[in-house]
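Service request form, structural biology core

Requester: graduate student, group of Dr. S.
Request type: structure prediction, single chain
Budget code: on file
Notes: please return the result as structure tokens.

Sequence provided:
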Amino acid sequence: MDQQCEECEQRSSDLKRCSGCFQVVYCSRKCQKRNWKSKHRDICKEFQSTHVTTISRSDNSKAILDLRKLALHDLNNNSSKDMKRARSEAEKLFSGYQILDDFKKISDSFVSRRVLVAYISSQHPYPFRHCVFIQDKTDKEMMVAFYLDYDDPTPHFRWEEVVPGNYLCVKNPYIHCFLDGQVGFRIDEPSLITVLSF
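Core staff response, request fulfilled:
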């Protein structure tokens, strides 16, 4: 699929993405530098401050998540969101599990017998795999990326259900650090997902 260079508008299928915001592409380092100076610098920094979660390093060089920046977006337009009902449904479905509806209560390591309940707020623009944004009860938003074998979620759920307005239940959630520096939830098994639709 051809994309267009942000600076010279040349179209190609082999453009390089901005490593800061991942939102724009360039055909060459020259175009990237020119565009950075003329207009992209401020846009990129603004985007990173609100959307891209950083990983800090401790004295022993072990990667540590900066939990203050866990939330990617802060959205308040949720008039149709009914987290209490979703949590109640999850409690019925997952008897014996701790139900979580706040990202801050989730760590970057595996903990069993927990279920995250979150509102599917929007589709993620990543073109190469299924990704969505989900919101917790405080309206914080994070990414969920699906890494399923053959991209096949059946019989656990259908892709048509993973749409804004529905709710996602994630068994045993943990914060994943993606190679591009973002954090979110990586789903490797379809059995970890249940979709709630009201």
